[in-house]
Amino acid sequence: MGGCLSLKKKKVEVVVKENEKKESSKEVQVGNSGSGSDKSTSVIVPVDGRPAIGENFTYQELADATTNFSPDTLLGQGGFGSVHSGFLKRTQQVVAVKKLDKDSAQGDEEYFMEIRMLSNLDHPNLVKLIGFCAEGDEKLIVYEFMPLGSLNNHLHDLPSDKQPLDWNTRMKIAEGVAKGLEYLHKEMPPVIHRDLKSSNILLGPGYHPKLSDFGLARLGPEGDKTHVSTRVMGTHGYCAPEYMLTGRLTLKSEIYSFGVVLLELITGRKPVGDHTLVEWARPKIKERKDFHTLVDPQLHGNYPKKGLHQALVVSELCLREQHENRPEIDEVVNALSFLAS
């Protein structure tokens, strides 16, 4: 099946400045603003030798922005805490504010890792960090506001008055996500998101996708190293099998997770049910006569047959059980650019 679509590598040039080769800083210095101050201050959050600027907001400023974290401003809730929409009067800016529960599963390490990563990464397909607040035992992160919410909310359990995503929009979202991963993987050192899933893909105007939630992100292998060893973290149904078994994290582990997201876009199915999405889809992908049974029924047959075939080829390559047989991310981008055009 892999011969049906050619995945040609395109040249990716990475310019590395000398001062970007320094060893990663293990500590994040966060200023402690007094609660009586109405002004935010800038703090330096170093990572990989690169200083970055983030706004250090007071807790009161963010409470005012979200109407004291009112249920009316609630955008989402998870094991980490809650996300609220807010309006910063000082900057006249609509933002999203993540407020960690004090007993959150996302601890200090994940909180500071997210700040470190987003402070130093900049790409159209990554959510932008506006600032943060670490005041007493309160920990909050402020992001740009993404008005269309998560991809997950556009694929699953749609209310009757909500239109499903059309095929072309799905492929453009897949392409944008792949471009975000390409940027991360071509960093020096590479960055592995480690929790790629539809609920961590946020959509802006025109369904422009951005990767979010970098609390579990890790720096990838450098030089002759083939992997980094970590605790197994992530979400069941998206994690690569070899990573689940060994804790060895590679760039190809994330290619597998992307393959699950692409399959989710094609099928409209959740990654975990009676079986995982991959277990359900794998035998069907091998039989061309069964391709139509893989498509999201909400599309009502409105998809290009050739485009479906090619998208399934890409997903099958990404989901190969042997990680060395999965494509590089720039190959995936190249194929999806063709499908989204």
How is this fold's topology laid out?
Layout: E1 41-44, E2 53-56, H1 59-65, E3 74-78, E4 81-88, E5 93-100, H2 108-120, E6 129-135, E7 138-144, H3 152-155, H4 167-185, E8 191-192, E9 201-204, E10 208-211, E11 218-219, E12 228-229, H5 241-246, E13 248-249, H6 251-267, H7 277-285, H8 305-318, H9 329-340
Parallel strand pairs: 2-6
Antiparallel strand pairs: 1-2, 3-4, 4-5, 5-7, 6-7, 8-11, 9-10, 12-13
Q: Spans of 5+ residues with little confidence (pLDDT < 50)? A: 1-52
How many structural domains can be distinguished in the coordinates? Answer: 2
The percentage of residues in β strands lies in 15-25%
Q: How many strand elements?
A: 13
Please identify the structural class as seen in this structure: alpha+beta
Distance between the termini: 23 Å
Description of the molecule:
- By secondary structure, this protein is α+β, with helices and mostly antiparallel strands.
- 30% of the residues lie in helices and 17% in strands.
- It folds into two domains: 20-144, Phosphorylase Kinase, domain 1 (2-Layer Sandwich); 148-340, Transferase(Phosphotransferase), domain 1, CATH 1.10.510.
- The protein contains nine helices and 13 strands.
- The strands form four sheets. It has a seven-stranded mixed beta sheet with strand order 1-2-6-7-5-4-3, sandwiched between helices.
- Strand 3 and strand 4 (81-88) form a beta hairpin.
- The longest helix is centred in the middle third of the chain and has 19 residues, at 167-185.
- The chain is globular, with a radius of gyration of 20 Å.
- The two termini are 23 Å apart.
- 43% of the residues are buried.
- Belongs to the protein kinase superfamily. Ser/Thr protein kinase family.
- ATP binds at residue 99.
- Residues 30-43 have a biased composition (Polar residues).
